[in-house]
Structure formats: structure tokens, C-alpha cells
Amino acid sequence: MSIIFHIHLSQLKKIHHLANNTHAVDFLASLSHDELTLTIENNLPNNYRERIYTPTKTLFMLLAQTLNEDRSCSKAVNDILIQAHFVDNTSANTAVYCKAQKRLSPSLLTQLVNKTGELIHRTVPQKWRWFGRSVSLIDDARHKK
After folding, report:
1. Would you say 95 and 52 are in contact if contact means Cβ atoms under 8 Å apart?
2. Distances in Å between the alpha carbon of 107 and those of 39, 47, 103, 104?
3. Computed from CA positions of residues 95, 73, 101, 77, in that sequence, does the dihedral angle turn out positive or negative?
4. Hey, which of 30, 104, 110, 112 has its CA 20 to 30 A from 45?
5. b/e per residue 6-37 (b: at least 16 CB within 10 A)
6. Which residues are CB-contacts of 111 (< 8 A; sequence separation ≥ 6)?
7. How far apart are CA 80 and CA 74, in angstroms?
8. Could you tell me if 68 and 24 are in contact, meaning their C-beta atoms sit under 8 angstroms apart?
9. Could you give the maximum distance between any two Cα atoms of the chain, in Å?
10. 86 Cβ contact partners less than 8 Å away, ≥ 6 residues apart
């Protein structure tokens, strides 16, 4: 196997390790930025109303669900109920959370991913750069087997 394959495998293992050992609250704290908040606010629907699962809470739960080893909706709902002490007045039924996920616009998610990438690129410490340079990796899926 090529050296590139081994480097790629090593990087994948590191990413999986970090993802499995990162708590969603820590991850979201690193994403707290006025530009991201503004992006969320600009993408709220005009007929937005306060619900149990607000867009920001739903987004938080979706990120936590994605980072968790158990990616089930029931795990995400149970975690938020436990963390927020909502057990007395909120159902553990996942249907409401699933509907809230569907209300998140694809445009919002796309803009948040792009904005996060821009913010990381602008704020990355110089010591993380390869010989002081920014490096981009382009994955061309057409050549994968």
C-alpha cells in the first residue's frame, strides 16, 4: 500500500478519535461566533414561532446527534431532556424533534458549513500551517473505486 494511503488512514483514525471524544457542548462553544449567529437569525422563517425545539436548539441537537456514537433521534431527545431538566413537561417522543429537523432549511445548513470553514481558515494558528502555507485538499469522488 502507498504511503499516501497510510497517511490518509492515520488522519481518519485521528478524526474518528476526536469526534468520538468531543462533547457537543465543547464543539458548539468553538462555533460560537457573531457571524454564525447572524447566519442563523437571517435564515429563520418569517412565520417562525417559539416552539419546544427552536431552530438553534434543533441545530444543537443535530450536531450532538451527529457527533455521538449512538446517532439515534431517541438518544438526542433523551440527552437534551436530561441536560435541560425538561423531563417533567416535555415528551421523550421523537416525532416533534424529527419535524423540527425538517424545518431546518438546507440553505441554513449549507451557509453554516461554509461560514464555519471561512472562520476556521481565517483564525487557524500559524503553527498549524504546513511550512507557513494554507493547504487545501480536494477530493474528486470520480476516481474512487
Report:
1. no
2. 10, 17, 11, 8
3. positive
4. 30
5. eeeeeeeeeeeeeeeeeebeebbeebeeeebe
6. 39, 43
7. 10
8. yes
9. 56
10. 80
For the chain, the domains span 23-125
Q: What digits encode the pLDDT tens for the residues 39-78?
A: 888 887 766 666 778 887 888 888 888 877 788 888 888 8
Residue-wise pLDDT tens digits, 62-71: 888 887 778 8
Report the C-alpha gap between 8 and 6 in whole angstroms: 5
The x, y and z cell numbers of residue 96, run together, are 416533534
C-beta atoms surrounding 53 within 10 Å: 21
Mean pLDDT value of segment 25-34: 64
Cell numbers given for 122: 481565517
Name the DSSP class of 72. -
pLDDT band per the 50, 70, 90 thresholds, residue 11: confident
| pTM assigned to the model | 0.59
Find, among 39, 59, 23, 21, the residue nearest to 116 by Cα: 39
pLDDT at 131 over 70: yes
